[in-house]
Amino acid sequence: MSRAPMGGGAGGIPPGLHLVAVPIGAARDITLRALDLLAGADVLAAEDTRTLRHLMEIHGVALNGRPLVAYHDHNEAEALPRLMGFLRAGKSVAYAPEAGTPLVSDPGYGLARAAAAEGLPVVAAPGASAVLTALAVSGLPSDRFLFAGFPPSGAGDRTRFIAELAPLRATLILYESPRRLGRLLVELAAGLGPERQAAVCRELTKRFEEVTRGSLSELAEIYAAADPKGEIVLVIDRGAEIQADEATLEDMLRAAMTTLSVKDAAAEVAAKTGSSKRSLYQMALNLTKS
């Protein structure tokens, strides 16, 4: 077991990796602790250094010649060893994502994992989060929720992704790009049920913040021709578990097989009903023969 050096850096910040949450829109949503860390850490790391520099300028935090290291998906091989070198030397490293809480759909995960694996201190300074902000304003149940990130881009992968979410008795939270939102809503209406309630949360905490609520079918119609801009968070109500007899299962399989393979249709119906995927696959095969 490795032990990190004790003490504080030049700015009074203890050694280790400090994961700093930053605003998702409104610059004043930053915390006092985040400002202390950005002002006092020996080294700064950021998913987008330009965004962090701008945020620091807004709040009057000077870089003062300290290293500012870009760390993102495209330069991890070069940046990770450099940042780990600072941490092993007992430096305090403050990492900030482009927006929101670090490690939530954010490349900082690799850095935090590497530091934790070596027993180096990893500390979080909590703050703004698009996930929790969207959940709060959606008007949907918040006692149990699942953040599922970005849906896959491939049609088949996305169908399976939605089928896996269908039986979950939790409010679902997804990220999606504006240009794919309309298509996703159509697929969610088909996979989760058209009457399932949801909220499209756009540009949270920013000037043009907007929350549009309705059923998945209503939202799919709204955004079929719309061209939304900005960051999108989609919140979807939990569904009611389907109690299906054999005739209902056969009807669901027939409907699913109009657009899906036998295997994928069985997986989708199994996800919606909790029935055995193997028995549904056999039932689907029998239906194709008959």
TrEMBL record:
<dbReference type="InterPro" id="IPR014776">
    <property type="entry name" value="4pyrrole_Mease_sub2"/>
</dbReference>
<keyword id="KW-0489">Methyltransferase</keyword>
<dbReference type="Pfam" id="PF00590">
    <property type="entry name" value="TP_methylase"/>
</dbReference>
<feature type="domain" description="RsmI HTH">
    <location>
        <begin position="244"/>
        <end position="287"/>
    </location>
</feature>
<dbReference type="InterPro" id="IPR035996">
    <property type="entry name" value="4pyrrol_Methylase_sf"/>
</dbReference>
<feature type="domain" description="Tetrapyrrole methylase">
    <location>
        <begin position="17"/>
        <end position="220"/>
    </location>
</feature>
<keyword id="KW-0949">S-adenosyl-L-methionine</keyword>
<dbReference type="GO" id="GO:0032259">
    <property type="term" value="P:methylation"/>
</dbReference>
<comment type="similarity">
    <text>Belongs to the methyltransferase superfamily. RsmI family.</text>
</comment>
<dbReference type="InterPro" id="IPR014777">
    <property type="entry name" value="4pyrrole_Mease_sub1"/>
</dbReference>
<dbReference type="InterPro" id="IPR053910">
    <property type="entry name" value="RsmI_HTH"/>
</dbReference>
<keyword id="KW-0698">rRNA processing</keyword>
<dbReference type="GO" id="GO:0008168">
    <property type="term" value="F:methyltransferase activity"/>
</dbReference>
<keyword id="KW-0808">Transferase</keyword>
<dbReference type="InterPro" id="IPR008189">
    <property type="entry name" value="rRNA_ssu_MeTfrase_I"/>
</dbReference>
<dbReference type="Pfam" id="PF23016">
    <property type="entry name" value="RsmI_C"/>
</dbReference>
<comment type="function">
    <text>Catalyzes the 2'-O-methylation of the ribose of cytidine 1402 (C1402) in 16S rRNA.</text>
</comment>
<protein>
    <recommendedName>
        <fullName>Ribosomal RNA small subunit methyltransferase I</fullName>
        <ecNumber>2.1.1.198</ecNumber>
    </recommendedName>
</protein>
<keyword id="KW-0963">Cytoplasm</keyword>
<dbReference type="InterPro" id="IPR000878">
    <property type="entry name" value="4pyrrol_Mease"/>
</dbReference>
